[in-house]
């Protein structure tokens, strides 16, 4: 089985797991709600301070930058926290257990010490790349975009390693990099596949929203609301699928374990354990 066929088989298996364990979609839902609440708590004071400075003809005050950075870090932490919770319960589901929201949150709380430095590192890298991109020309933005993509792919398995193994962030980065060398095809194709499915599923929602804008009035507002809700549903399902796929890819690459749901993906032969390679500690 080639990489494309194997990646597609993994995606279909992830969808089957989500269909039987629908409680996994609650993690991105809770994450989104927490992000909105906490984001508003930091964003509104920062915007008010910025607006006051601008109205007075001054540059942005240092407090604005501090609030924006702290807010960005907290939002990154929330995202990674619930991603960790999702991964932990996706692993439970892949092992044939009974996942739960409470169980996922408890696991993520136990990994709080490892999640914080990873949130700080990932948020800092993201801000640095975005700042460089804003100041670069077209060619520079393209190059920085490639760097950001490479960073995302190489660190794709950091969260599963942090959640499922007792290691530091540095060890998780090294492990993710090593596993990427073994699974780069499935990594890239899996991300592209989930992204493509998400895009195609979003098209009807985008069409509804666009029609609502064109129509206007109460009917148009209703269509816009429906379109927005449909986009939220697509985002939630896509995030849950990505977490399942991510967890499955880690399990196969690190331990050679094949869950029953992924039996058709031929992964046991794709990622046999290697002597001297990266090994799981659990």
Tell me what the structure shows.
81% of the residues lie in helices and 0% in strands. The protein is built from 10 helices and no strands. It has helices at residues 3-20, 26-55, 62-94, 101-110, 112-135, 138-154, 158-164, 169-215, 217-255, 267-270. The protein is an all-alpha fold and 282 residues long. The protein has one domain. The longest helix has 47 residues, at 169-215.
Outline the secondary-structure elements.
Layout: H1 3-20, H2 26-55, H3 62-94, H4 101-110, H5 112-135, H6 138-154, H7 158-164, H8 169-215, H9 217-255, H10 267-270
Helix pairs in contact: 1-8, 1-9, 2-3, 2-9, 3-4, 3-5, 3-7, 3-9, 5-6, 7-8, 8-9
- Beta content: under 5%
Unreliable sequence segments: 268-282
Structurally, the number of domains stands at 1
Query: How would a textbook summarize the main sheet?
Result: none
Could you tell me the mean pLDDT?
A: 80
Overall shape: it is globular
Q: List the helices and strands in order.
A: HHHHHHHHHH
Q: Portion of residues in helices?
A: over 70%
Mind telling me the C-alpha Rg?
21 Å
How many individual β-strands? 0
Distance between the termini: 29 Å
* Tally of contiguous helical segments: 10
Instruction: Give the structural class.
Output: mainly alpha
Any descriptors?
single chain; 282 residues; mainly alpha; 81% helix; globular; disordered C terminus
Outline of the structure:
The protein is mainly α and 282 residues long.
């Amino acid at each position: 089985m080639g990489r494309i066929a194997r990646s597609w088989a993994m995606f279909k298996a992830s969808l089957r797991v989500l269909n039987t364990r629908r409680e996994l979609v609650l993690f991105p839902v809770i994450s989104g709600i927490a992000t909105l609440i906490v984001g508003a708590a930091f964003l509104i004071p920062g915007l008010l301070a910025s607006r006051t400075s601008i109205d007075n003809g001054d540059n942005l005050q240092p407090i604005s930058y501090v609030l924006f950075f702290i807010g960005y870090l907290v939002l990154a932490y929330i995202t990674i926290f619930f991603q960790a919770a999702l991964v932990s319960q996706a692993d439970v589901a892949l092992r044939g257990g009974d996942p739960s929201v409470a169980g996922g949150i408890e696991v993520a709380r136990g990994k709080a010490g490892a999640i914080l430095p990873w949130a700080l590192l990932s948020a800092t890298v993201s801000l640095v790349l975005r700042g460089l991109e804003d100041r670069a020309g077209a060619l520079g933005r393209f190059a920085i975009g490639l760097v950001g993509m490479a960073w995302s792919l190489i660190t794709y398995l950091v969260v599963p390693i942090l959640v499922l193994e007792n290691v530091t962030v540095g060890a998780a980065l090294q492990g993710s990099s090593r596993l990427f060398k073994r699974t780069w095809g499935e990594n890239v194709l899996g991300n592209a596949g989930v992204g493509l499915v998400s895009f195609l599923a979003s098209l009807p929602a985008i069409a509804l929203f666009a029609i609502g804008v064109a129509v206007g009035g109460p009917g148009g507002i209703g269509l816009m609301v429906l379109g927005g809700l449909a986009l939220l549903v697509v985002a939630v399902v896509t995030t849950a699928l990505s977490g399942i796929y991510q967890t499955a890819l880690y399990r196969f690459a690190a331990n050679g374990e094949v869950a029953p749901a992924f039996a058709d993906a031929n992964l046991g032969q794709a990622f046999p354990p290697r002597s001297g390679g990266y090994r799981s500690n659990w």
